[in-house]
Amino acid sequence: MPKAHLTPAFVANAGCEVGKKRSDWYDDTVTGFVLECRCTGGKTYYLRYPDPAGRQRQFKIGRYEDITFAAAKKRAVQLRSEAIVGGDPAAKRAEAKAIPLYGELSAMHLADAKIHQRSYSTTEMYVRRHIIPKWGKVRLTDIHSRNVSQWLGDKRAEGLAPATVEKIRVIFGRSFQLGLEWGIPGCDKNPTHGVRRTPFNNACERFLTAEEAARLREAAAASQNTQLQHIVGLLLLTGARVRELLDARWEHVDVGKRTWLIPTSKTGKPRRVPLSTAALAIIEALPRFKDCPWLVPNPDTLKPFVSIKHGWQQAIKVAKLPGLRIHDLRHSAASFMVNSGVDLFAVGKVLGHASYQSTQRYSHLANDTLLAAVEAGAAKQVAA
């Protein structure tokens, strides 16, 4: 264990002793400060010190060509001071290196979403297109709320819709939420918490009148997609989401109990949808295909439709309902129930809303019904 007074000149000329693979030159002024010289010509600065348990530890400061002697010695003094008061610089560095990059966490997030999330493709697209390019190579502990807030602000400045930016924020935050549940180091603080959310109104509901619904049914019945009329009819009568219906199986329909089981809904929980007499009539009239488990399959493939966009666009054109989205049938189903006097709680249960707040969007429809009621009462009093 040769000692030397390490100086810039000494370090520049130091080398490995003859016949050895490595020589360690210990500084005689800073205890534990070492210059390691290898027979290959490489040189590296280290600090060697006892950890709180008395074990000999080593902390790599840097290679000779990467750091000046003055900077290496200054760092050695800092690390030595930390070790003297009971710290363990090497353990601290190892702990920091154990923190995953966001790219690793996102891979775990997507693997989980593929199993449990119906909208996996959407989540994967947002992660791949927006989140990974910015944070994929960043350690989780280096991602802070301030950085995230600035990044989302930049996304808005790029022209992304407020709803899109909010979706990015939610997915990004979900990664850290899952990481915390799984005990992933660096996930104890969610960097999306505390980020100011820009208020926006993404509501774009449209409610069909009875006459418009009749026109749409007629147009769907004339579609080249022979299943479209059944799909439209059931969506209007059940308020189900289109993907829920396209993936529906015969085994989940109980005609006797007049219920349809949706095993996994958007909320992640199963729910049962009550079937009206009109809905049962459509189901009983559905074509059955041998060995096909699906309720409304594509007749050509006998598998669930990937998309019904073409038939839908043609139907709303014929029905003269431009811009109508298929999801608006869900809103319309709720509208018909509310305007028939059904209370919002019951409507929410039928639609499978996770919270009462989700059903509140239909409260103005309930007010219309109540207004009609008081007007009728007032008219009766006048007549008396």
From TrEMBL:
GO molecular function per UniProt: DNA binding
Q: Which UniProt keywords apply?
A: DNA integration, DNA recombination, DNA-binding
Entry annotated with the keyword DNA-binding: yes
Q: Which InterPro entries match?
A: DNA_brk_join_enz, Integrase-like_cat_sf, Integrase_catalytic, Integrase_DNA-bd_sf, Integrase_DNA_bind_dom, Integrase_recombinase_N, Phage_Integrase
Per the database record, which ranges form the Tyr recombinase domain?
Answer: 203-375
Record-linked Gene3D superfamilies: 1.10.150.130, Integrase, DNA-binding domain, Intergrase catalytic core
One GO biological process this protein is involved in is: DNA recombination
Which Pfam family, just one, is annotated for this protein?
Arm-DNA-bind_3
User: What CDD domains would the database entry show?
Assistant: INT_Rci_Hp1_C
**Would the keyword Manganese turn up in this protein's UniProt record?**
no
SUPFAM superfamilies tied to this protein: DNA breaking-rejoining enzymes (SSF56349)
Q: Family per UniProt?
A: Belongs to the 'phage' integrase family.
Name the UniProt record assigns to this protein? Integrase
The scientific name of the source species is Brevundimonas lenta
